[in-house]
Amino acid sequence: QHAAQSLLVGTGTEVPLVQGGSTDYVNLDYAASAPALREVAEHVAALLPLYSSIHRGAGYLSQVCTEVYEAARTTVAAFVGARADDVVIFTRNTTDSLNLLARSVPGDTVVLDIEHHANFLPWLGTGGGRTVVAEPTVGATLAALEAELRRTTAALVAVTGASNVTGESLPLRRVAEIAHRHGARLAVDGAQLLPHRRVDLAATGIDYLAVSGHKLYAPYGAGALIGRRDWLDAAEPHLAGGGAVRAVTVDGATWTDSPARHEAGSPNLIGAAALAKACQVLGALPEAQQEAREAALLQRLRTGLAELGIEPLRIWGQEDDETGGAAGETEDTVAIVTFTVPGWTAEEVATYLSAEHGIGVRDGRFCAHPLLRRLTGAATAIRASVGLDTDERAIDRLLGALAALLTDGPRWTYATADGAVVP
Ligand code: PMP
């Protein structure tokens, strides 16, 4: 555990409490964004003196930066098990990656109604999005997906790698098989899966993967779309501008191939290098150990919540051995838990946890309005999510604070409309 904690910048932060004094901060909001890895911060600091233009200069610094940028591509590709002919396009984040892909798909895209808006709205925007309503079990959901693909031709299936609301994950190998059987490709929104699980595109059959650096322990501003080249090379450039062209005349341009085709403008060298360094560090962590540690924390949180009478939100029920567990694939859940507390709004709970206990969680509808509407009706909810430096103490602090809320109520009254706190 200490080894994991020393991986991160900014652990051990003291935060003020509303009743006075301060406490060490408990960050349980890794699903929103994760603090930088120490090695990432050091890598960024080492790059700053070398800062120069990429792909555009013959000078030494320019050559070094170009080399670093292109090496970052190779590192990201290796981290996700990309096929030799896959392309890595650096983007701003997962949202950007999925918007780029949505404009490159030569046909309809089938999505589930459980998605983060980043993997929902881009497809609606293209006019080619078809939504399948998730069923109460994984097996029935896969069957519904297949029925939709059988009903009419689609070019792509786009699913989340792990739900940002419940942490639940479809068996991606099975989804890929289903998509491919019907002539469609599979895109995975990896924003929540990649921080918790290794993904291997070649082995799983995922055709496109979208990721965000800031959820992978790198800074904001860089993400990637990794996947098959042909659609991306046939698509209009994501942005028109320098670097994306082969030749320009006063009448128009001929565009170059991916990845440069979709990376017009001066690239985000620091972002790409930081993302790659994070991939390198995460890739070297002991995978089984990390998964086991997070599974134990998840179990501790779930058990503690159950003892308080709080049931986490779930998309799928347990009974699913007919189809969900085939081909070595089982339903999986990463360490994200979302719940409501009877008698209190999510805003009140989140404000109480922060102000009185120094615990950071997320409250709201998590950019997944269709899913939240289904799981809670109109209500917002509270999300706790685990990261590399989360320990049992953090989980127990949250459980203790919730127990105190349920028995004693908050010491203060929280007026949520304007965020004001009154005694
Ligand atoms: N998909 C999922 C599942 C997410 O959780 C998020 C971030 N909350 C996104 C996509 C969007 O990521 P970003 O804001 O970095 O584009």
TrEMBL record:
Reactions mediated catalytically: (sulfur carrier)-H + L-cysteine = (sulfur carrier)-SH + L-alanine
Pfam families per the UniProt record, alphabetical: Aminotran_5
Gene Ontology MF term list: cysteine desulfurase activity; transaminase activity
UniProt cofactor(s): pyridoxal 5'-phosphate
Keywords (A to Z) from UniProt: Aminotransferase, Pyridoxal phosphate, Transferase
Source organism, top-level taxon: Bacteria
SUPFAM superfamilies attached to this UniProt entry: PLP-dependent transferases (SSF53383)
Domain Aminotransferase class V: 26-398
Similarity comment: Belongs to the class-V pyridoxal-phosphate-dependent aminotransferase family. Csd subfamily.
Protein name per Swiss-Prot or TrEMBL: Aminotransferase class V-fold PLP-dependent enzyme
